[in-house]
User: Fold this.
Amino acid sequence: MKIITDQDLNPNIIRYLEAVEDRDIFYKAYNLKHPLALYNTSFSKVITALEDFSDVYDNLILEDFTSNKNKNDKCVNLLKNYKTFLYSLREYLDDCFHIIKIFISPQSSFKKDRNQCNWLKKNALSETKDFFETIKDYKKYLDNIVNELKHQNGVLNYVVFYNERSGEFHMGYFVANVRNDAYEPVDHIHKRFQEQYTAFSFNRDVKYNLFNIFLISEGLVEFLEAMNLKTNFAGKITKKKSNKRESLYKKIMDMPRVFFPDEYSKNVPSVYLLKEGGLKLEYPSISLSLQKLTCGKMLLSHSGDGKTREFKVLYY
Assistant:
């Protein structure tokens, strides 16, 4: 699928939420924010978390992993920031469930459920089935990771493929937990590859997440279009392109096209800043060629719990 934004680089749902008329919005009945305010806040939180991760990631050098002097605040902060980013993505999805709910006219006969995803499925399944079909793979990915970290005491660790001579390295992460008295990547998150434990490279995962942020917004656009709401695009609020946001997207676009060994068999996400303005995101990409992983050495982190003594090695 290909997604192209306006020149302001914002998700296309924003201009739709600016254009809908208040008579079609039931946010007060549900005691929620206006959907535009809700989306702007949630999207900003996700992008801020990604910027915080990127600021640390861009300043890493190989010695941050290999030197005994660095025990290593940068890497700890990096994982902390990426965990915050993953959590914000799941909250973003929940906020989008709330936005859909706001457009469902309240009825006294609605079945109650505190989980907004379940509420929609119980009370507005016909209106939301296309949206849930659009997000189902990504929701499963997020649910598996966030639930393991939040509710199963899982731990986020890093893995680095590197070349000492060139100083080149490629970093990623895996969610680990104790199975059979050993810390290992959680198998329903990280599938085995040639009988080896695996991880997610940041080079692929960041682009995959960014694509899906915009994919969810496109799902909201399709939902609103299917509702046949009256809109007034003439009243669209004109926003200037954010230089900081553009800089972030450029850094993501320029991330090396080098993946971890098992990821070369997966679909490739791509991100482009267009010369004429706007952002193009594509998954699977039909034009992006990958570069070979040539770094032969690997480092990984494990967070001990004071009891478990065995830690599984990845890829080797």
Observations:
- The CA atoms of residues 49 and 84 lie 6 Å apart.
- The chain has one domain: 2-311.
- The mean pLDDT is 93.
